[in-house]
């Protein structure tokens, strides 16, 4: 005959179950140096990659314009950037060809007019404190000079390289307007999606 479990034993079993079920494993930390796809010291001359990146070697003005990766994406650099870096506020070789007064002579693409503007939220001041209201639009102020927020070109505009990687790209490009493949309309759409 099956004996009945006494209430105290029943309560002890339930308590044991919850103690075991609620045990949290110790937090596992991953060393920041171990993150990424390759286990190699990228700063070492000893590191041997099977294939090094084959960066574009075309001289400026000889490269072909690269279609944008997505709508309003910054244009990519279609020529070599050897000797261009580091870019500094007072030493930026890109400006020697891409400034509006230089493009006729150089044949380069002109720096966007958006780079001669300050794009900031329209902040509200109250009692000496500034806040960004939920429905704030972007306040655009025209400038006579290049906005120094844009001096470091390679933060957005990047040189291209031919590489073979074993990672499938599932990204699909979509453009609302066909001109968006080669041009940007960010200036007109900057407030899009802001209520």
Automatic annotation (TrEMBL):
* Cell compartments where the protein resides: Periplasm
InterPro entries recorded: Multihaem_cyt_sf, NapB
An annotated GO cellular component: periplasmic space
Q: Which GO terms describe its biological process?
A: anaerobic respiration
Q: What is this protein called?
A: Periplasmic nitrate reductase, electron transfer subunit
Per the similarity annotation, which family is this? Belongs to the NapB family.
- Which GO MF terms are attached to this record? metal ion binding
Q: Which organism is it from?
A: Ancylomarina euxinus
- Tell me the PANTHER family matching this sequence: PERIPLASMIC NITRATE REDUCTASE, ELECTRON TRANSFER SUBUNIT
SUPFAM superfamilies per record: Multiheme cytochromes
């Amino acid at each position: 005959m099956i004996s009945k479990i006494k209430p105290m034993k029943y309560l002890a079993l339930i308590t044991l179950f919850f103690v075991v079920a609620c045990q949290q494993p110790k937090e596992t930390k991953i060393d920041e140096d171990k993150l990424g796809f390759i286990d190699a010291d990228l700063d070492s001359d000893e590191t041997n990659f099977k294939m090094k990146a084959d960066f574009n070697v075309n001289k400026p003005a000889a490269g072909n314009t690269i279609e944008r990766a997505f709508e309003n994406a910054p244009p990519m650099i279609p020529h070599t950037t050897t000797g261009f870096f580091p870019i500094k506020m007072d030493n930026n070789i890109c400006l020697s060809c891409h400034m509006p007064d230089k493009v006729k002579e150089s044949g380069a693409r002109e720096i966007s007019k958006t780079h001669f503007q300050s794009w900031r939220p329209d902040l509200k001041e109250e009692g000496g404190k500034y806040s960004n209201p939920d429905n704030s639009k972007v306040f655009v102020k025209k400038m006579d000079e290049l906005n120094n927020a844009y001096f470091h070109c390679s933060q957005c505009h990047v040189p291209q390289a031919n590489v073979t990687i074993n990672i499938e790209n599932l990204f699909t490009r979509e453009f609302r307007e066909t001109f968006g493949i080669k041009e940007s309309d960010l200036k007109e759409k900057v407030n899009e999606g802001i209520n």
